[in-house]
Amino acid sequence: MVFLDAQKEIVLRELEVLREHIATEKQSNAPLDLGKVSNAVLRDLAEALRRLKESFMPQIEELIQKRNDLVEELGNLGRMKDKSFQEFEQLSLKNAQLAELNNQLVHQIQELYKANSNSTDSNRQAPNGLGIYHHKDKSTASVERDLRSITNEPSPGIVQPEEAEPITVVQGPQVVSIRKGQPKKFNWKRGGQNVAKGVTKGLKGAFLYGEGKSQREGAQFTETAPYGSIPPTSDNNSGPQRAQTQDPSRQGFGFFGNQKTKTSQWKPPANGSSSVLNEGSIGLFGSDLEQRLEVERGVIPSIVTRCIEEVELRGMDVEGIYRKSGGSSQVQMVRDGFERSRDFDISDPDLDIHAVTSALKQYFRMLPTPLITYDVYDMLLDANNITPASSRIDVMQHGLQELPRVHRDVLEFLVFHLKRVVDRERENLMTSLNIAVVFAPTIMRPESLSREMTDVQKKNETLQFLVDNCQDIFMGMPE
């Protein structure tokens, strides 16, 4: 449309000039000189076009200025979009880290709750001769203290020790073993008479049980574990009665019956697995890298080699590898597996590859000393200000030389793997910048938490340069 408008204006000027010259020739009544007329027409037409161009110049300059402003605005919007995407990636990573920390806290709370419940169950007072528990949530010490206070304070409703009848030892209850799931009635004829006989006397003396237990050395009725369970190491005072309660022909009531296999103490297998126990004595997650390698007697931790091997086998073409997080249950399963054995199998196709990468990132994140140590952190960040790439490589090589040999070997192994991930960017959409955004807060962090957010951009640039130039940096370092 602009081109047609310009053509229209030019044609109008030509017609106007021709009309003026034709009218002038008609008024002069002189013979028509085509050469003279054509020169005059061309001269006037050029002058008219010049005036037309000058009239459009302010509009053209204004439009050019608007175009330049729009180009600059588009550039700013593009940069803002990239920055927003980077901030989104960082927030997503922080969100994933917070979710992982939340899962860890929930898991720890559950473990503490289980440990407390187990300790409460282990401290529960054994049932008396009638199989009745006298407390539910109180500890044995509190019950004994209550009984002691009861026996020390006179009360009209409680028989005092000097007024009590002789204590009758009540035998353990005789129950009929359950066969084929059919319960039978309690047989009062077989041993039940001793239970029924003197029950009143036994109840009168029961209040003195907590205080008098420590004073009766030869007593047969002692505090034992539930029927069917393996009691702890006993003293010489409980021999006859405990031997009787542990008779394999006897069974207890309900859930207490036939639990010898459930409550038996765990014994270590005798098939040469002591090395696994020695490795398990030092936890994997949260342990020092050098200390872990001393246990494994290797160069790279087994969890790092196994996870990276699995990623290179079936995760290099997965979109968002290392950026997406795995399910918390599968991540915890991978963690527990490597805590038990360094040869834990993660090659199951049903195991999400993102769970493997999340476990690997958690391992690096939980190192007490980060993979890029605090001593080298500032040196690598300062290298971002060096403009020539060759000089920057030299400075980074000098900084990496300051790392402990174990940290440098693991870092080199990891960075070359990340470079292979970036080489398949078309498939997994993970550029070196995306990899840096994911791994920078995982393998390098400042000593001061106040710098955690201010150094985000510098850490990303450092790790991105390290991944892009890993061949020149690591292969050019002296041994």
Automatic annotation (TrEMBL):
GO molecular function: GTPase activator activity
Gene3D superfamilies: Rho GTPase activation protein
GO biological process, one term: signal transduction
UniProt KW keywords: Coiled coil, GTPase activation
Record flagged with keyword Cell inner membrane: no
Alphabetical list of InterPro entries matching this protein: Rho-GAP, Rho_GTPase_activation_prot, RhoGAP_dom
Name used for this protein in its record: Beta-chimaerin
Lineage: Eukaryota, Fungi, Dikarya, Ascomycota, Pezizomycotina
